[in-house]
């Protein structure tokens, strides 16, 4: 009997709820998104819910958990809402967000502007990013090991694997895939790489990825079959919503079969209906119909449904 597929999720920055609670709430959002487009796939995945795993790197990195009750109103509201409303779309595409996107793009091209433009929240994120890329006290090494282990275990069991990287999680995932290609040199091939709200389109990030100082094949992971990127309108982490052009050399070198970008509208609100729109939230990305369709199609193919 063939082993069931595996969906591995690597979350972004900031403390997260304890792993069991975090996994359960994200799975609720994913299953609801899939249920809306394909109840059969939803039921099959739900019967094998252990096939969805979260790489819980945040607690070792921060030393604390996030209180799930802070997110609860937003989670319950997004589970009830069927799609992005006109008010969500208008807010996500507002002039304010467009102007901020332009400012952040300028800073990405001219990094010396970043300290002058960074908000308090951005400063904290930059500190966390630099702690990772500088590998202070080996924190990046230990973080990446948390993903290497389940990937290699899945490879040993010949389990088809879908790796999801949300936000900073996509940076960690990309580094691990590069390591497995060029340093650990493991016989591993990822079936599908899905990035959500990724900063990988930013030059600032690209210049800090493992392999960024190399050229040609040595610069990129060689173990990704297909890569799909989904970015929400108004997501100021994914300021470059299309990563295809940034990683087109992977296709030219024959390292990957396909890279595709999709834009979407997310509608998660931090305090539930009427609260602040947070288009970058992982819960909103997981329940989104485009994300759900990508995962549903992949699952159906691997399960023969």
Give a written overview of the molecule.
Helices cover 49% and strands 11% of the residues. The protein has 305 residues and is an alpha/beta fold. Strands 2-1-3-4-5-6 form a six-stranded parallel sheet, with helices on both faces. The longest helix has 19 residues, at 19-37.
Annotation keywords:
about 300 residues; alpha/beta; 14 helices; about 10% strand
H/E element order: EHHEHHHHHHHEHEHEHEHH
Order the strands across the largest sheet as they lie in space.
2-1-3-4-5-6
DSSP helical segment count: 14
Q: Describe the biggest sheet? A: 6 strands, parallel
Task: Tell me roughly what share of residues is in helical segments.
Answer: 40-55%
Relative strand content:
5-15%
Tell me the number of strands: 6
Uncertain segments:
none
Shape: globular
What's the mean pLDDT score? 91
- Cα-based radius of gyration, to the nearest Å: 18 Å
Distance between the termini: 16 Å
Concise synopsis of the structure shown:
49% of the residues lie in helices and 11% in strands. The protein contains 14 helices and six strands. Helix 10 (168-182) links the parallel strand 3 (161-166) and strand 4 (192-196).
């Amino acid at each position: 009997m063939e082993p069931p597929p595996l969906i591995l999720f690597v979350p972004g920055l900031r403390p997260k709820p304890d792993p069991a609670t975090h996994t359960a709430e994200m799975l609720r959002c994913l299953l609801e998104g899939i249920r809306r487009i394909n109840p059969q796939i939803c039921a099959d995945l739900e019967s094998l819910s252990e096939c969805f795993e979260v790489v819980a790197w945040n607690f070792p990195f921060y030393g604390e958990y996030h209180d799930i009750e802070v997110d609860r109103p937003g989670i319950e509201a997004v589970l009830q809402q069927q799609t992005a409303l006109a008010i969500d779309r208008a807010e996500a595409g507002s002039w304010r967000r467009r102007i901020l996107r332009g400012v952040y793009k300028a800073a990405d091209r001219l990094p010396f502007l970043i300290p002058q433009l960074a908000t308090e929240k951005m400063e904290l994120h930059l500190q966390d990013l630099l702690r990772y890329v500088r590998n202070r006290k080996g924190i990046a090494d230990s973080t990446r090991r948390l993903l290497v282990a389940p990937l290699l275990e899945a490879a040993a069991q010949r389990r088809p694997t879908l790796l999801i990287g949300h936000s900073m999680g996509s940076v960690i995932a990309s580094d691990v895939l590069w390591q497995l290609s060029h340093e650990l040199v493991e016989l591993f091939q990822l079936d599908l790489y899905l990035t959500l709200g990724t900063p990988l389109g930013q030059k600032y990030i690209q210049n800090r990825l493992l392999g960024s100082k190399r050229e040609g094949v040595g610069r990129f992971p060689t173990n990704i079959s297909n890569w799909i990127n989904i970015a929400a309108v108004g997501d100021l982490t994914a300021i470059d919503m299309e990563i295809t052009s940034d990683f087109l050399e992977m296709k030219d070198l024959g390292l990957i079969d396909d890279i595709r970008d999709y834009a979407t509208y997310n509608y998660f609100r931090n305090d539930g209906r009427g609260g602040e729109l947070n288009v970058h939230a992982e819960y909103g990305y997981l329940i989104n119909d485009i994300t759900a369709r990508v995962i549903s199609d992949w699952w159906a193919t691997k399960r023969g449904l």
